[in-house]
Design brief:
The chain has one domain. The chain contains 2 helices and no strands. The longest helix is centred in the middle third of the chain and has 43 residues. Helix 1 packs across helix 2. 89% of the residues lie in helices and 0% in strands. It is an all-alpha fold.
Length: 64
């Protein structure tokens, strides 16, 4: 099994960015745009869970 060499990968990325800046930027923007909806969904779920926990705590306090 080969080790993943970060330095070699970084050099490849820098070389690619220097040779094809538009292709590199397009790929980076495409990758980020595919991740944005996932990040947004995670934030929405976290906010919903937080609201539910807050409501549970309020109900517990009312019951006491």
């Amino acid at each position: 099994m080969k080790m993943f060499h970060i330095k070699a990968w970084a050099e490849y990325v820098v070389e690619w960015a220097a040779k094809e800046p538009y292709g590199f930027l397009t790929t980076v923007i495409w990758a980020l745009t595919t991740l944005f909806p996932s990040w947004k969904l995670v934030k929405m779920i976290e906010a919903r869970e937080e609201e539910q926990n807050k409501q549970k705590q309020e109900n517990i306090a009312k019951a006491k």
